[in-house]
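Action item from last week, closing it out:
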Amino acid sequence: MLFSFLKYLQPTHYFQLYRNDGSSVFPIPEHLPEALLDQVAPNPVFKSEKARVYDCSWQALQKGYIGPAATYKRFEKLPVIDEYTFIRLYFHPAWVLYVLLLRLCSFKNPVAEIKSWLQTRNIRRVPYLERPIHHPNWDNLPHPVSKKVTVIIPTLNRYTYLKDGLKDLELQTHTNFEVIVVDQSEPFQPDFYKQFSLHLRVIHQKERALWLARNTAIEKANSDLLLLYDDDSRVKKDWIENHLRCLDFFNADISSGVSISQSGAEVPANYAFFRVSDQLDTGNVLIKRAVFEAIGLFDRQFEKQRMGDGEFGLRAHLEGFLNISNPHAGRLHLKVGSGGLREMGSWDGFRPKKWLAPRPIPSVLYLFRNYYGKKRAIFSLLKTVPPSIMPYKFKKNKLMMVLGSLLSLLLFPLVLFQVLKSWSLASKKIKQGARIKKLSA
């Protein structure tokens, strides 16, 4: 990994893994365009030259570099002091202390660790995302009129919200598209769909299964461009157009639109500009059919649970498909309290509804352990489980998240029970193996 301390702070991040061809996603700075170098100049605060170069690579990717530069295939070990320097530059001081405690508990040399931590204490965080990379030619790209798109919407007992979403589709500037709705509602209301002026196909699916619904619609789609959408979302009239423009502009395989939630965590700063995406949200993403043909459909081990879209995005990333985070294809995610996965017992991957239920939801550990191994999965649990004690609505409140971490210490026996239960259920999933159906070309 570029800087090894990222394994503590981002243990299950897409970019922590080498792709299947042995390459990383991090560009080699000497191959970057000269116009970009003034934004990622070497920082003299690092002790080693190699750390300065690695930092330039990390900055370029975080600020939105998308291009043909060669990437690293291996990374050299850096001095411990440079590792502390790096996390002090880009993470809150509380996380720096967190890393120090983990290192000490892992029986690292306490003298070297504490000395490096102290020697870097005067380094302040830098606002590195204030100057992202811009793409001035974006507005000059012609409208891709001829390309046909299939919009795929699974729905479950949300006709009120689905109506608004379909009305948004009626207003789209790009009109060459079909809509496939996979309706799992009870009671099923076929007459509901007669009110829309859309090329609309409705599939009534009796089994309540989100990933089955999406897989079925993908197989039945009549286009090579598949736009996945949630039934509790609102979009602007240029939504489809901007997804298509993104694929063309970057010669990408996936356009991941940003999702702004009415409740939950703060909107990340990197949602404001184009970048190589480190996530995939099936409520707002345009994917070429060729991606599914190469890596298969969604893994049904995630049925009625969470992170099936994250697993698919990671699979696509590892295979080398280019996924762009697209700030111009946003959606408002209403996150309504009924219907959808809410009725299947799941709202948040780390927040079970019942005290004796597994924490996190087993599919989360199934994903982490499958791709990152047991050690990284444990690092992820240490970072994410304590703050998850607080309800989802408090994710924007940092004080409440800290309180949740403290409460987790008081509730340690219960939390440990939840985690071990999740680990056991994830082990069963791993033993069963993936449930990924191939898509014929």
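Closing note: DSSP finds 14 helices and nine strands in the chain.
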